[in-house]
Amino acid sequence: MQKITLLIHCEDQSNIIASVTNFIATNDGNIVYIDQHVDREQNIFFMRLECEFASNTFALENFKQLFSTTLAQKFQLEWKIFAAERKPKMALFVSKYDHCLYDILGRYNSGELFLEIPFILSNHLDLKPIADSFNIPFYHVPITASTKDEAEQKQLELLESHAIDFIVLARYMQIVSKTLIDNYPNKIINIHHSFLPAFVGAKPYHSAYKRGVKIIGATSHYITEVLDAGPIIEQDVAHVSHTHSIKDLIAKGRDLEKIVLSNAIKLHTKRKVMVYNNKTIIFS
Amino acid sequence: MQKITLLIHCEDQSNIIASVTNFIATNDGNIVYIDQHVDREQNIFFMRLECEFASNTFALENFKQLFSTTLAQKFQLEWKIFAAERKPKMALFVSKYDHCLYDILGRYNSGELFLEIPFILSNHLDLKPIADSFNIPFYHVPITASTKDEAEQKQLELLESHAIDFIVLARYMQIVSKTLIDNYPNKIINIHHSFLPAFVGAKPYHSAYKRGVKIIGATSHYITEVLDAGPIIEQDVAHVSHTHSIKDLIAKGRDLEKIVLSNAIKLHTKRKVMVYNNKTIIFS
Amino acid sequence: MQKITLLIHCEDQSNIIASVTNFIATNDGNIVYIDQHVDREQNIFFMRLECEFASNTFALENFKQLFSTTLAQKFQLEWKIFAAERKPKMALFVSKYDHCLYDILGRYNSGELFLEIPFILSNHLDLKPIADSFNIPFYHVPITASTKDEAEQKQLELLESHAIDFIVLARYMQIVSKTLIDNYPNKIINIHHSFLPAFVGAKPYHSAYKRGVKIIGATSHYITEVLDAGPIIEQDVAHVSHTHSIKDLIAKGRDLEKIVLSNAIKLHTKRKVMVYNNKTIIFS
Amino acid sequence: MQKITLLIHCEDQSNIIASVTNFIATNDGNIVYIDQHVDREQNIFFMRLECEFASNTFALENFKQLFSTTLAQKFQLEWKIFAAERKPKMALFVSKYDHCLYDILGRYNSGELFLEIPFILSNHLDLKPIADSFNIPFYHVPITASTKDEAEQKQLELLESHAIDFIVLARYMQIVSKTLIDNYPNKIINIHHSFLPAFVGAKPYHSAYKRGVKIIGATSHYITEVLDAGPIIEQDVAHVSHTHSIKDLIAKGRDLEKIVLSNAIKLHTKRKVMVYNNKTIIFS
């Protein structure tokens, strides 16, 4: 049995669901999961399907070709098809904070994450021992004002040579370049340590402390060119009080960051996320 | 445009999604919402659809007849079809506590609930003034050991004469009879003031206090013959501490009860709940 | 037995706790509750005490006088003393939304709130029937650009003549004047329908929808001259998804608003809130 | 400056707060934190203080002696005094699950936990590599029906020879013996993977799945002789739905277990927990 995941969006129109499901059935596929959403403000239809085909007769490229020239044309669909058994390859970018790294590698090691980690990259050497202890290649690509372009070039080469599918910034403290973003659109996941859009930018826990909020949060989002303004994948919060110092907020926030980021990674690798107009549709 | 909601469950089998969607399309319906679930343990398939038909040609009874004799037979479907524009009729059973009653009537008055309330029934007169202030008929049906059968008969007559679709026990402190349950299967919604299955039965806040739990909860479920063991529709919890007295737990719990019960009512009236083997499927 | 609540703040210094507790003991009081906090950034000490005195010998004014001339002077204390049995008087300002009003009055009626409501005030007549059904005086004070000063004068007269202690803006859709704020410093409680500081100003649910956030919130705070920037008393949030329309966010948000506002009212009336430098200390 | 933490409980009585604070002041101590609680049902008073003394004159043993013979006798106090700078020594008992172990060691490594870990003990060898990678001694003490007494003896020797203060069962899948419990009363912290008292005993996620609950939880508690019935330190929950398989519940639960257990460890090591009559008082 071969399994595929199909993501579609297009202008909302009649009979789209019946047409797609009928197409799958006609081509000897069996739909095992279907979810759909209509954005009524923008009149856009979104759908996610998981389908099974008999392995001996199914050829993914043929199916894509057929889908593309018939249904996709007729309904003017934007679409993506993924072979379900293929693990996406994730590059981990880190800096000096280790909590998200430990969390992701612990989950990875225990088989919780459906992905491969070809390498970890950092502008510092601090976390190399952790990468070593999990037997994952670690690349040190330092960044200074004068070496920025060079470093970026090195990053792109590494990403390409390892056939990376998506990048996770696990508290990577650098601004990512436009080139990188353009090469990996909606494929660079960041964790920001506030409930966006509150406290954009640096030192959100300090700002939260100063404002005297009673909840803090963390937000995982795709990186776009506008700082901390990309499509939000996942958010969570925790209650705090006047008794929490900035240090306490940072400690409490670490737990939020870990869980929110790992949830975003899971959603992304399960192809549960669609992006449209700087917002996400998250199929459950 | 006429809109229907279709709920289906059956043994899981190939091509069921494509067949149903195709059937709708063939009969000039347009699917505007589809959600499905497969219970892999029990191999049962569940689906919920919302479909639109042109008003001038569509006849609900004809459609039901056709669906029943073709698709339903072929796949051995259990199914229900609801006309979306029809408001379900809800009977409210209360006793002496007023918080859930106020909450439901406040929402009802402001148009938040898609339902009608033909009457409120109680074994006490305490809450009659509230019913009066919202201009809803109030029936006083006292219950004593000797009048129990008679009271129950009176209840059944009222429910039938008002064509009630479902019953909400808004902190109604009486055990509901088997006859009532049999007449309204999975149509009697109760609110229990604990996170079931913890603290079944009377005085759950007292038990929670005694056990020293750090969270309390509320659970909305359909009434079955086994006390507090029916299918759970919705649950929510709140954190508490050693500083909370039993009275504090009761006060904090009231807010949970209100929200959990009103959410269950909304899910039920939107036909978002399916019940199978004493568990619920809640479509989002 | 006579009970008082004592709130103190001052520059942090040695022996302040022992000195205050000793003072109470020396004057035949028994401390039944003590809580304290030190803001290490600003070096400020905060304390809240509940003390009991024998009724036949205790005179509140004498005690205040003594406290003021001895301890308060020695440690340069800012302090407030409240007789615990006196119910604070709350004025309710509303506009057209009824959910917070229903919620507060339901709690008030069932004895959950320790306060009196001398009157409800609105710039519209829409909610008068609700006030009537709870038998609470309702004043209609319309506001237009030309009558603003006059309306404000009328408000101040009503507040004064009813000896109002604090004001609750239960979705009162008007900007409150500087004069009112100056007359009731940290005594005007507002409910804002977002997790501040995100989505300051009008239509926060629309902004939340547009940004695609995965959580929405509500914030209760004291009104200051800067819009939505006053000291935060209480916040809560709820998870949302792409399936929620703006209308859904508004409906879900109403439940947050109700609970957050009523919690803030309870904290305020129990004298659990201290304000310093635009932040709150909330004693539990 | 030398800092101590003082925990007291006794029958509730007048002037206890003033007397204790006065005693500290008289002995040249400065109270920097005070919290107290009265259990009105059982008429028991609880207090936690942090005090600072000038290092050159303060002798902890002398202070204890004086406190014991004066105040403690007068008020019949139960009390404990801890030197704040001394890190408690924690033994980690594990079995085959690694998520709590990774979580605790990650926090330990980054300095988040105020404690020492002299050793990790397991009845299996599976997690030895993790202990090795963090450079913590690992003892393998296998347990079979015939070697149970011997294994227990070995455990007690290890605990004693390393001067262990408290034990954490990080998903240690064995029933702990009465002897161990008696030697470490309210000093053995367990994590149970349900919101107790629901789903006591083995396989709680399976039971939760079967019951169809909409929330799952985790509970950290001190071990007593009655299974899963000891004093609860911390609980947390997560929302689930019909879409979650047992495997999903287990994965989601792991995150709860990690956070709940590490919070309990923090509360214990900060001396924030008091136990009375099988319940905890948790000072914030």
| Order of adjacent strands in the largest pleated sheet of chain A | 7-6-5-8-9-10-11
Helix and strand sequence of chain A: EHEEHHEEHEHEHEHEHEEHEE
Sequence stretches where pLDDT stays below 50 over 5 or more residues of chain A: none
What is the number of strand segments of chain A? 13
Please outline the major beta sheet of chain A. 7 strands, mixed
CATH classification, class level of the largest domain in chain A: Alpha Beta
CATH topology of the largest domain in chain A: Rossmann fold
What Rg of chain A do the Cα atoms give? Answer: 21 Å
The total count of helices of chain A amounts to: 9
* Mean pLDDT across all amino acids of chain A: 96
| Gross geometry of chain A | globular
The oligomeric state of the chains shown is homotetramer
- Provide the CATH architecture of the largest domain in chain A: 3-Layer(aba) Sandwich
Largest interface: A-C, 31 and 30 residues
Q: Pairing-aware structural class of the strands and helices of chain A?
A: alpha/beta
Properties at a glance:
EC 3.5.1.10 (chains A, B, C, D), four-stranded antiparallel beta sheet, hydrolase (chains A, B, C, D), Alpha-Beta Plaits, 2 domains, homotetramer, one-carbon metabolism (chains A, B, C, D), Rossmann fold, 33% helix
